[in-house]
Design goal:
The complex is a heterodimer of chains A (about 500) and B (about 500).
Chain A (H helix, E strand, L loop, with lengths): L7 E2 L4 E13 L38 H13 L7 E2 L2 E4 L9 E4 L9 E6 L5 E13 L3 E3 L8 E3 L6 E7 L6 H18 L11 E11 L2 H8 L9 E6 L2 H20 L7 E6 L4 E7 L9 E2 L6 E2 L2 H9 L5 H12 L3 H8 L2 H11 L4 H19 L10 H12 L5 H12 L7 H8 L7 H14 L1 H9 L4 H11 L6 H12 L3
Parallel strand pairs in A: 12-13
Antiparallel strand pairs in A: 1-2, 2-10, 2-11, 3-16, 4-5, 4-15, 6-7, 7-10, 8-9, 11-12, 13-14
Helix pairs in contact in A: 2-4, 6-7, 8-9, 8-10, 10-11, 13-15, 13-16, 15-16
Chain B lengths: L8 H9 L5 H13 L7 E4 L1 H16 L10 E5 L26 H8 L3 E6 L38 H8 L5 E6 L5 H7 L2 E4 L19 E6 L2 H11 L29 E5 L9 H16 L3 E5 L4 H19 L17 H12 L2 H14 L5 H24 L2 E5 L15 H5 L6 H6 L3 E8 L5 E7 L5 H15 L11
Parallel strand pairs in B: 2-3, 2-4, 7-8, 7-9
Antiparallel strand pairs in B: 1-3, 4-6, 5-6, 5-10, 9-11, 10-11
Helix pairs in contact in B: 5-6, 9-11, 9-12
Classes of the chains: A alpha+beta (about 500), B alpha/beta (about 500).
Chain lengths: ~500, ~500
């Protein structure tokens, strides 16, 4: 990790950018972290609010065991250390949508410690990003300021909903890496079923920490662990798409370099991202920073569980993206990147396995990623809405593999399955439409003879230019309505034309 | 008809079941007396209509032979317990008009056992105080007066309303809460019995929180047996309170029998404070002797960390309070002082809603938790607290109970100590340790001082040692034979 990558050129020399992400992921759970009210999205204002959520006098929190299990699951999915003893703290501040006047969070003793995940950037580059910690905390409610001229409204439906805050180490070095990491986290939690990853509903959002330093200083930081080698960071809050993460890093890096090169300094501050302009702006500076007066919540006992409890959860984990990726590479002979593209979405991976299982993996991968995904993309469909089932596509590949049809005819069948022959088995389509490959040597030889006889000029040419053989192959294919086996045609023509 | 208000809960219970008198008659006498005793300012709110419905239901049950343990017993409820549909304001202006849509677990337990709620009792604002003077309703007044004087005295705090009401026989028993001594000190100042159970024995759900790690509900009653009867109903595991402990509730009333023969009772020498009054010191010695005569072995024990208990308490309790009281912000319920700016609204609401003592403690609490001071104050206090608890636990390896005075002085005049918060805080000097260690304590009347004012004695037991504690307290109560009553100057 110490090599200088992604250098940014400034007026006065090269810079490096350093990024860390704090991702808030809403725990998939029917009920809230400390109360029995529903955590469902989309209810009417203040419909999912219990006495505890509204912080009525004398109300007490009781931890939701399912949310704890979800956090452990996620920790395991991040290859992280699970802490058998952790504790909830109160983070104190006043805000109308924070009914208790404090948020119950985990400050000093989080449930999950250090971990590491693999993040694929492209076919060649996979990086590792360290996880600092994961902790559980309550979400706040929502303040609505535009319903009345002088009043604000508060909706407490989200108040008390369980969040996991997943904090990365400052190990990402470009907008590309940061956004790929965010995407990978989303993939992992969706695989685990611990967060639905619906960013437009606020289920997943990132606080993006960005700083820049002179080229070479990051290496010094890695060597010494001394943060003074890094620049002052800014934190851009609540970034809720993979693309926006990229924009924030790009914008912030450029802005900070400009400020520094003009002789200015970077303030450690909280910033907001403006989706419309793609820019960030100051939300509050360090001077306005709250003193949150964290202290252990005396209403809750420390959170303790046994290693056996963790082991039971570990045993119930689904296959995770990285494991699946490695298995796809081994079992189906895919490239690491192709495998990563397939596993990025659990449903896509499942579809692929439905097609590839027991068949030629590379052929399956090419059909799924090129033809099928291309078609879905064009139609704007999700994999789960695919008009062609994995079974159908698998059947099609079988027909190619046993040389019943050529790849070209297969594409024709593929189109038919989308349209006229929707839902039909490829085998039946080929049968009904007489698309079977012609492997009858006699028929092929006759066709070849016919073409050779009709084109003496081409025959003469091919003696000097063996590459012109392709033209003859094409003609024979045309003659047979595309059903000829191209390899067989090739062999026959070579023999007849005396080409080696 | 006889004066039913002189009867204990046990006597009322047995008399109603024997049909000697009805729940209606009991209630009527208590209620009439309470109404004629407004001068004591013990009740801040009566619950007449609901109470009468409860009384009728109780008489029906008694008639059918279906009486529950507290059937028809008229009780007062400290106004820190949320009572469904009945205003609960913790003696704070900030909660004026707040009617909880829920019933606290402890008060619900009492209702389930047939108790009748007469109304809500006065207290120090948010239970912060030792004299009832911080109440937004003005202080409850102690029914006891110095001989030959008319000076109004404090019933103690924070459960001063509960103690005054029981001492003046305005209710048969009362709920109370104890964070640093708020059950035991008022009991001592009013010649009543106040029992603070082990932390986690009674649910805190629905009790307006002061300091979560210290708050514990308990009864104030006329005698030890009554306190045991009330605890039977109040105690129990509550899944809604994560700090409540899942452990069966024994029959505490059964525990009063047996005496102290063979018990080892410790006298912690560090409780003998410099400047302690001779009367309290003599009472302490005398009661130890009484226990010895009953067959207990009296041993001196040492609790050297005792002197740190009060400072630790006055860091931990305000710290938790500063966070617990953040919810009173004018946004959701209670009082709001309007302003267009949210921060101004907070300032005005909290500035006008809280009294001076609450503000003082919120500021202390905010200070000790703030960046740069946390380690020096809060963290350090928590470490010392752990050591105090360990020291206490070690003492209970040598002895079954500890005997101490309940409070450093008898009831004092209103206004006499309110100018100096430190002097006021010293009231908790004998009681806070039990809260910090989470162990139970009970205060019983020990005798009268030279001015005719009650003095209390405290027994402290190890965690969940309530039965031993009740047995010891019952034996000491019997040996002392205290039976003085205040002169009824207020009616």
């Amino acid at each position: 990790m110490t090599e200088q990558r992604n250098l940014l050129r400034g007026e006065t020399g090269d810079w490096e950018v350093v990024i860390g992400l704090e991702v808030h992921a809403q725990v998939t759970s029917n009920t809230k972290l400390f109360s029995g009210s529903s955590a469902a999205y989309g209810a009417g204002p203040n419909e999912n609010v219990s006495l505890v959520d509204a912080a009525m006098p004398g109300m007490l929190p009781v931890i939701n065991q399912f949310c704890v299990e979800q956090a452990i699951k996620t920790g395991l999915g991040l290859n992280a250390k699970i802490h058998l003893w952790s504790r909830f703290d109160r983070k104190n501040y006043f805000y109308p949508d924070l009914p208790q006047g404090y948020q119950i969070s985990q400050y000093k003793d989080p449930i999950v410690g250090e971990g590491e995940i693999e993040v694929e950037l492209d076919a060649e580059r996979t990086i590792k990003v360290g996880i600092e910690r994961l902790h559980l905390e309550q979400d706040a409610g929502k303040s609505i300021h535009d319903l009345a001229p002088k009043e604000s409204y508060v909706d407490l439906n989200r108040s008390g909903v369980a969040l996991m805050e997943i904090v990365s180490k400052p190990e990402m070095r470009s907008a590309e890496e940061a956004s790929a990491y965010f995407g990978k986290l989303r993939t992992i939690v969706r695989y685990l079923g611990t967060c639905d990853g619906n960013m437009d509903q606020g289920s997943m959002r990132a606080d993006v920490n960005v700083s820049v330093c002179r080229a070479g200083n990051y290496a010094k930081f890695v060597e010494t662990g001394d943060f003074s080698h890094l620049g002052t960071r800014t934190e851009t809050k609540n970034v809720n798409s993979i693309r926006f993460v990229r924009q924030v890093v790009d914008y912030e890096a450029r802005r900070q370099i400009q400020v520094l090169e003009a002789g200015g300094t970077i303030d450690q501050e909280t910033r907001l991202f403006d989706v419309k302009t793609g820019e960030t702006r100051t939300m509050r500076s360090k001077e306005d920073a709250h003193d949150y007066r964290y202290f252990p919540d005396p209403d809750l006992l420390p959170l303790e569980f046994s290693q056996e409890f963790v082991d039971r959860i570990a045993a119930s984990l689904p296959e995770l993206p990285d494991a699946k990726k490695h298995r796809f590479v081994e079992e189906y002979g895919l490239s690491s990147y192709d495998a990563a593209v397939l596993v990025a979405d659990k449903d896509k991976a499942t579809y692929f396995e439905g097609v590839a299982s027991g068949r030629d993996g590379k052929l399956a991968s090419s059909w799924v990623t090129t033809e099928l995904f291309g078609m879905l993309n064009k139609e704007g469909l999700e994999i789960t809405e695919s008009p062609i089932s994995a079974e159908q596509l698998g059947g099609l590949i079988d027909l190619i593999s046993d040389e019943t049809i050529s790849g070209k005819i297969a594409k024709q069948v593929f189109e038919l399955m989308l349209d006229e022959d929707k839902g039909k088995a490829p085998k039946d389509i080929v049968e009904a439409r007489g698309l079977k490959q012609v492997t009858d040597t006699g028929a092929l030889e006759a066709a070849a003879d016919k073409i050779i006889a009709a084109n003496p000029e081409q025959v003469a040419k091919v003696k000097d230019k063996p590459k012109a053989l392709g033209w003859f192959v094409g003609q024979v294919m045309k003659e047979t309505g595309g059903k000829a086996n191209p390899q067989a045609v090739n062999a026959i023509l070579k023999k007849k034309l005396g080409v080696e | 008809m006889a004066d039913l208000t002189t009867k204990t809960i046990a006597q009322l219970r047995d008399g109603m079941r024997a049909k000697e008198f009805s729940a209606a008659e009991v209630f009527d006498q208590y209620f009439t007396r309470a109404e004629n005793s407004r001068a004591l300012n013990a009740f801040v709110r009566f619950n007449v209509e609901l109470a009468w419905d409860q009384v009728k239901a109780s008489d029906e049950r008694i008639a059918k032979g279906e009486a529950r343990p507290l059937e028809g017993i008229p009780m007062g409820i400290k106004d820190l317990f949320c009572t469904e549909g009945l205003e609960t304001n913790a003696a704070s202006r900030i909660l004026y008009g707040f009617r909880p849509p829920y019933e606290s677990t402890v008060s619900q337990n009492l209702l389930d056992d047939g108790a009748v709620f007469m109304g809500k009792l006065n207290l120090d604002e948010f239970a912060m105080g030792s004299s009832n003077e911080t109440s937004a309703h003005g202080p409850a007044i102690n029914p006891w007066r110095r001989e030959g004087e008319e000076t109004k005295l404090t019933p103690g705090g924070s459960s001063g309303g509960s103690a005054a009401a029981v001492a003046a026989r305005l209710c048969a028993g009362a709920t109370a809460t104890d964070t640093g001594g708020s059950i035991r000190q008022p009991a001592a100042l009013t010649a009543t019995v106040g029992l603070k159970p082990t932390y986690g024995r009674c649910s805190r759900w629905g009790i307006v929180a002061f300091a979560s790690s210290l708050d514990q509900a308990g009864p104030i009653a006329k005698d030890v047996r009554d306190s045991a009867i009330l605890l039977n109903s109040m105690a129990g595991y509550d899944p809604k309170d994560s700090t409540s402990i899942d452990r069966p509730v024994p029959d505490y009333e059964q525990a009063i029998a047996g005496g102290v023969k063979g018990m080892k009772i410790g006298i912690p020498k560090e409780y003998r404070l410099d400047g302690m009054s001779q009367e309290i010191s003599d009472l302490w010695t005398k009661s130890a002797k009484l226990l010895e005569e009953q067959g207990a072995e009296i041993v001196e024990v040492s609790l050297p960390l005792t002197k740190y208990a009060l400072p630790v308490y006055y860091i931990v309790a305000p710290a938790e309070a500063s966070s617990n009281l953040a919810r009173y912000d004018g946004v959701k319920y209670g009082v709001r002082v309007e302003d267009d700016n949210i921060h101004e609204m907070y300032k005005k609401t909290r500035g006008e809603g809280f009294g001076a003592e609450v503000k003082r403690r919120l500021m202390i609490g905010t200070y000790v938790l703030s960046a740069g001071y946390y380690d020096a104050y809060y963290l350090r206090a928590q470490r010392v607290r752990k050591k105090i608890a360990m020291e206490m636990a070690a003492a209970f390896e040598q002895v079954d109970l500890l005997l101490t005075p309940s409070s450093p002085s008898a009831a004092f005049g209103l206004g006499e100590k309110s100018a100096d918060p430190i002097e006021m805080y010293l009231n908790d000097v004998f009681t806070v340790t039990a809260n910090l260690a989470g162990v139970p304590g009970i205060s019983i009347p020990g005798g009268l001082d030279a001015q005719g004012l009650p003095l209390g004695l405290q027994l402290i037991a190890p965690a969940f040692g309530e039965e031993t504690m009740i047995r010891g307290a019952a034996a000491l109560e019997e040996a002392i034979g205290f039976n003085a009553q205040p002169t009824e100057w207020w009616r």
